[in-house]
Amino acid sequence: MVRGAPIKFRFCSARSRKLVGVADRVQVRQIDDYEGQRLLRIIRRGTRSVVTWRRAQMVLLSAQGMPAAKIAEVTFTSDDRVRDVIHNFNADGFDSLYPECKGGQPKTFTLPERREILRILLREEGVSFQRLKTWKTSRDPEYAAKKARVEHLYAIADGEVIPEDGDPEVVLCMDEFGPLNPTPHPGRQWAERGGKHKDSDPEPRRRRRATYNRYGGVRHLFAALDLVKGKLYSHIKPIKKRTQFLEFCRYLRSLYPPDIRLAIVCDNVSPHLTTKRCQRVGDWATANNVEIAYTPTNSS
């Protein structure tokens, strides 16, 4: 029950004989135009005190006919707090909007203390800084078999599974990146004003082109990671086709003795595949004791 709120009583049935108290609707008193303009100035221009700004907002919303429960929802506070502010304004006027500050300098927190307080609050609320990730479901008809094979090769590389007959001893993950080429990016610097400003004497400042002619072409990176040794191997190629892919595979094959079986895990980009028109990848893998393990198509 709010202090000072008018109370009216009603009696229930004679059988129950209970006395129930019901509070009238709390609303600010009638305010004139000057008071309304003063409240608007406090809200629009702001004050040094957030408390004053919030109290003025509650009073103005009540003057517009909004009930206390709705004001509490809008201002993120409790109904009792809103009723107290309205009652105090009805009694003391604008003096009630300004908080009564006690003597002494308020406590100040250092930057490490503020960070620690924020960290504790976020941890108690179960909030952490996260990056939004995406995923998609593969429609590959051989999804289960490809996924199981790739996971089995990873388990071999991690030493969790003993290789069986026909399993590779070395597992390599291979992919390409490109095209690689320098790209101009806009930047900022301190420089003398150009001629397009008030002083038209200086020449306009030189600009950088957004793109350029690549007469020398671009480059593509072929890279493979040995999951057992943790070594990364790479080549730079001018183009990215099946011939360049086989060249890099031959290089990987040359790093290990011929009797050691290799497994190369790669995606389903066309230069990696064995097709009806071109079976060079499959023939080379069979002849050189290499397994090409493909990941499922269109999957995360």
Describe what this molecule looks like in 3D.
By secondary structure, the protein is an alpha/beta fold. Among the domains are: 7-97, no CATH class; 143-180 and 217-294, 2-Layer Sandwich (Nucleotidyltransferase, domain 5), CATH 3.30.420.10. Helices cover 33% and strands 15% of the residues. The chain contains eight helices and seven strands. The chain has helices at residues 33-45, 50-63, 68-75, 79-92, 111-124, 143-157, 242-254, 280-287, and strands spanning 7-11, 19-23, 170-180, 219-226, 231-237, 262-266, 290-294. It has a five-stranded mixed sheet with strand order 5-4-3-6-7. Strands 1-2 form a two-stranded antiparallel sheet. α1 (33-45) crosses α2 (50-63). The longest helix has 15 residues, at 143-157. The radius of gyration is 37 Å and the shape is elongated. Mean pLDDT is 82; it is low at 1-22.
Helix fraction, binned, reads: 25-40%
> CATH class of the domain at 143-180 and 217-294, anyone?
Alpha Beta
Remind me, CATH topology of the domain at 143-180 and 217-294?
Nucleotidyltransferase, domain 5
Span from first to last CA? 58 Å
Order of helices and strands: EEHHHHHHEEEHEHE
Beta-strand percentage? Answer: 15-25%
Number of separate helices: 8
Task: Characterize the overall form.
Answer: elongated
Residue-averaged pLDDT:
82
Largest sheet: 5 strands, mixed
| pLDDT < 50 stretches | 1-22
Strand order of the largest sheet: 5-4-3-6-7
User: What's the CATH H-level homologous superfamily of the domain at 143-180 and 217-294?
Assistant: Ribonuclease H-like superfamily/Ribonuclease H
In the CATH hierarchy, the architecture of the domain at 143-180 and 217-294 is 2-Layer Sandwich
State the secondary-structure class.
alpha/beta
The radius of gyration computed from the alpha-carbon positions, rounded to a whole number of angstroms, is 37 Å
β-strand number: 7
